Amino acid sequence: MINFFKLTIQFIYFFFVSLIGLIITMTGPLLQKSNKRENILKLILLSVILTITALIFYQMLEQPV
Fold this sequence. Notes:
Blueprint: H1 4-33, H2 36-62
Helix pairs in contact: 1-2
């Protein structure tokens, strides 16, 4: 029998990893063209998004299967 909970976690994990990759790909060229203040703001935004994703993964792993 298929364990749907593990499939859901794998799908959510794949979705968030792709989202992080997409965000990094989008911010790469923007960091080269803009000034330092905008770069700092974009890096802060990127780190906040990564932190939220890590917290979501932590909560998912803490739940009993």
